[in-house]
Amino acid sequence: MARAKPAKKSSRNDAPDAIALLKADHRQVEDWFEEFDKARSDDRKQDLATKICNALKVHATIEEEIFYPAFLAATDDKDLHHEATIEHNGAKNLIAEIEASSPDDDYFKAKVTVLSEMIKHHVKEEEQPGGMFAEARDSDMDLDQLGEQLAARKAELEGESDEGDDTPPPRGQRERGETGRVMKSGR
Ligand SMILES: [Fe+2]
Ligand SMILES: [Fe+2]
Question: Which of 59, 127, 168, 186 has the highest CB neighbour count under 10 A?
């Protein structure tokens, strides 16, 4: 009558392993894209677009800083790794365009729709049989340990973007706000 351990959980603790964490991010963003499709008011569209862009920036950053390098080191699969990286670049360009625009821009919805298509394609490449995550599972990557690293970095980045949203810029640093960037301050 031993209870089975929940699937995909780390053996060391209750934290999700790297792949479970990244997949949960994918599902969250897919939900928001779906809600965006149904949204009627501009406020709601703006709110969802902001959530999507922020979540994707954090997700791409933790993959690029932690998961992708570990994948490349463990598998030496440059084709999968490089393709994924280039797809991230394409998505980031479109995210920047969405952030610079708003629902009263004629092209706003098209931008979000095309972003959702790009992400759908990219997520499929990561999750499909023979894709990056499957290959990572077959490798000797320490997915539990990477999951902890991803979660820690994710929390840190989310904290930074919260600060950016809520805290007025310190006196004398107003000029930094001109670009409207909240992302990384370089440290
Ligand atoms: Fe991903
Ligand atoms: Fe990715």
Answer: 59
How far is the centre of ligand 2, averaged over its atoms, from the C-alpha of 135 (Å)? 14
| Residue 141 located in a structural domain | yes
Q: Answer yes or no: is 56 within a domain.
A: yes
Give me the amino acid identity at 149.
Q
What is the pLDDT tens value at each position of the chain, 187 positions in all?
444 444 454 455 678 999 999 999 999 999 999 999 999 999 999 999 999 999 999 999 999 999 999 999 999 999 999 999 999 999 999 999 999 999 999 999 999 999 999 999 999 999 999 999 999 999 999 999 999 999 999 999 999 877 655 544 444 444 443 333 444 433 3
- How far, in Å, from the CA of 168 to the mean position of ligand 1? 32
With respect to residue 172, please indicate whether it lies within any of the assigned structural domains.
Answer: no
Distances (CA, A) of 72 to 53, 84, 109: 26, 11, 35
d(CA 50, CA 73): 33
- What ligand is nearest to the CA atom of residue 88? 2
- Cα of 22 vs centre of ligand 1, distance in Å, is 6
107: containing domain: 18-157
pTM here is: 0.81
Q: Ligand 1: distance of its center to the CA of 6 in Å? A: 22
Specify if 131 maps to a domain. yes
Span from the CA of 64 to the centroid of ligand 2 (angstroms): 8
Determine the Cα–Cα distance for residues 175 and 169; give it in Å rounded to an integer: 9
